[in-house]
Each structure stands twice: as C-alpha cells, then as structure tokens.
Amino acid sequence: MRKVLVVSYSFPPVGGAGVQRPVKFVKYLRDYGWEPVVLTVSNPSVPVIDTSLIKDIPDGVTVYRARTLEPSYAQKQEFIASGKNLKSRIKSLVKKLVTPLMLPDSQVLWWPGLMFKLIRVIWRERPRVLFVTAPPFSTFLPVVFLGKMLGVPVILDYRDEWVFYRAQLENAIKHSLARRLDTIFERYAVMQCTAFTAANKSYVNSLCSAYPEISPDKATVITNGFDEDDLNFKETVGVVHGGNMPITLVYAGTVWKATSLSNFVTALKNLLKMDPALRSVLRVKVFGRVVDSEQEYLQNPDLTGVLRMFGYVEHADLMEETMAADVLVLTLSDLPGAEKIITGKVFEYMATGKQILAIVPEGETKDLLSRNYNKLSLVDANDLDGVRNALADIVSNILVIRKTSGTDVSSFSRKELTHTLARVFDKAEEVYAL
C-alpha cells in the first residue's frame, strides 16, 4: 500500500476542533489505498488534551513525534498574566521582546525538531506524498521546502484561512511586518506545493485572488464533516421527551471573539426578563474553553440556574451531550472575514438531527445550513430581538421540534470526504511522476 506522511501539529492526544480533520483522515485513508504515517509534536503547547481521540488512530499506524522548543501552555499563561513583582515584570519584558519575532506564529519553534525528524521519516518510510495541515501555518514552510528538495509531492491543507487567523486570533501578532511576511510565506508555500485542499470554497477563491499566478486546478475543496462512529449511541440517548421536560440548549466549542456568545446571552436575559417563568424551563449548557475576555458575561448572576459552563470535555462525552440536547447553539461573530468561515461543528450538529439555533452573519455557514438542513432557527449575528424571538419560538414549538427528523447529511461523512482526499493524493502522485 502506498504511504502518505501526514504532518499535523494538532493530533491526539491534543484536543479541540482542529484535531478532528487530520485524525479522521488518518482513520479512513486505508480504505482508499493509502497507508498513513503521522508526524506530530511530542510536547504540544496547547490548552486542552483529549485522550478519547486516540481511539480514532487505527492499529498499526506509525506516529512519529518531534519536540518543539516552545514553552508549555502553562508557561505561556504565566507570561500573559501580568504582576507587580520583579519576576513578573521580567517575564512581561521578555514576552514583549520575543513574541514579535515568532513569525508567522510561535510554532516556528517546532521547526528544528520538525525538520530533523521529517528528513529521517521520509528516508525511512519512503512516502509517495506529504500532506501537511494548518494552522499553525508555519508548518507549511519546512514541509514544502523539504518536499521539493527530496522530490516528494506536497499537499497543503487549509483548515482555516491564514489572513483571518492573523487578523482575529487574540494572541496573533498584528504589526505590518507580520502581514507582509505572511504574504511572502504563503505565496512560497502555495506556489511550490503540488496541490492544496481547503475547508471551503471561499478560502480557495481568496488564495487565487491574492496570488493570480496560482492555477485553480491546484485546489480541491474538502469540507469538514462528521464521523458516523461518533454517533453510534444515537438510539440510546435520542429519546423524544414529553412537553414537561426542561428544554436543553447546548453550545459546543471554544468561546472567543469569533464565536462569542454575548448576543445570545443578552437575548436570553431579555427573554427571561419578559417571561420569568422560563427560568424553570430553559437549561443552557456551554461545553468548551472560554477565553478570558468572554468570561464575565457568561458568569452573570442573572443566569444562575439557567446557564452552566462545563469547560472542555472529551469529544466522546461532548457528542453524547449534543445527542441528548433539544437545541444546539451555533454562533459566528460578524467580523471581517467571518463570511468565509464554515465552523467545523456545524457538520456534527446537522448529523445529530437536532434543532440548530444558528446566530451567524451572511456567508458560508449561513448558506451551508440554508441549503442542507431543515431543523433550523436562523438569525443574523447582530439581531438581538431576532435571537430572543427565536428562543421564544423554540419554547412554543418544542413538542414539534422534538418529534421532527433532521435532514440526511450523509454526504458530509468523514469517510466520504477522505475518499476525496485520497483522489487528490492519486492525482498528485501521477502529476509528480510526469
């Protein structure tokens, strides 16, 4: 069987939404004639760990790990936290001096270990294709460079958009030099790679617009999706409740400015003020990491007994919670570039067959839901009254919602999407051999 080397910083036991895409590809590639070999980081500097995702790595798959020079995530948090003592001031000064040099992102500190291990793995495993997924986007550069040098075709995978990542990620460097270097680095990567895949069409359009010299034939859109195996407990928890059960709304995922729950929470408080009796009816559960800037409004005492935060939970437990919910909350802030995003969890949301309350701007996510799903309360990201009214409608129609089936979305299964990726590998191998 032909080998493909999958290079991904985000890989189990790292947790979070970004891990789903590479690990599910690895899970199903053998079905389409490709043996995955993985190269990832041995000491990831990440906020969450999820050991439940390890089960998705098939038996016998070789996983190599290369050490990064990054400080641990806990050490990063110490640098971010300011203090008045001398030690804290020194740390703050070091952060101000060093952080702007970490371009295009702090994972450049993985480069020494990555490049050393990458050469050894290519020499040992003899892969026919290199597949590298980002963010972090710094990972693209050494893989493309060594792939060209060693004569192995390279496929880049855009889980997110590089420009949006720079502009909106809280800890990303925002100065003009960083943006200029991004352009230089990205042009090099997309020009030198054999092909690239992207999570939605807008990313492809943006790349072809920014770099007209790129042939659109290089690009393949492979959306995110859902894994049927993650829903295998559906029959045990997907019970239709009667009208007297509390109405449970679940939000799953990181809460940061791009997915802020601020407007949802404001609308919820307004609804409870208008109808206090709903306090005994509504239950909102928030699962996922909440960044510091989003904490305060979620801890509002006005929502005591209604809204609870559970923090990050393992993916298997999260899927069980979503299957037991009545309504799944999806948010996307109206930020520049957000119109090009399709949030990864939307596919798992649709696969559950549950009602989705989508508070999103015009763009890819709204279009995807409108075209493909029926159990949908769709509200503009800035329409507070619309969110409040949607919540009220959900309460009024909960019996119908609980009995209605969701649209079949099997075309977004991870296995089918991996088939598309395998065809990209097939083509790259053929083109490179010419």
Looking across the biggest beta sheet, what order are the strands in?
Answer: 3-2-1-4-5-6-7
- The helix/strand class is alpha/beta
Number of helices: 17
Helix content: 40-55%
Strand fraction: 15-25%
According to DSSP, the number of beta strands is: 13
Query: Which spans of ≥5 residues are poorly predicted at pLDDT below 50?
Result: 234-242
SSE succession = EHEEHHHEHEHHEHEHEHEHEHEHEHEHHH
Largest sheet: 7 strands, parallel
Task: Report the average pLDDT across residues.
Answer: 90
What distance lies between the first and last C-alpha atoms, to the nearest angstrom?
21 Å
Radius of gyration: 22 Å
Q: Quick one: overall form?
A: globular
Helices and strands in order:
Blueprint: E1 2-7, H1 17-28, E2 34-41, E3 62-66, H2 73-80, H3 86-98, H4 111-125, E4 129-134, H5 140-150, E5 154-158, H6 162-168, H7 176-192, E6 195-198, H8 201-210, E7 219-221, H9 234-237, E8 247-252, H10 262-274, E9 282-287, H11 295-298, E10 307-311, H12 315-324, E11 327-331, H13 345-352, E12 355-360, H14 364-372, E13 376-380, H15 384-396, H16 398-403, H17 414-433
Parallel strand pairs: 1-2, 1-4, 2-3, 4-5, 5-6, 6-7, 8-9, 8-11, 9-10, 11-12, 12-13
Summary of the model, kept short:
The chain has helices spanning 17-28, 73-80, 86-98, 111-125, 140-150, 162-168, 176-192, 201-210, 234-237, 262-274, 295-298, 315-324, 345-352, 364-372, 384-396, 398-403, 414-433, and strands at residues 2-7, 34-41, 62-66, 129-134, 154-158, 195-198, 219-221, 247-252, 282-287, 307-311, 327-331, 355-360, 376-380.
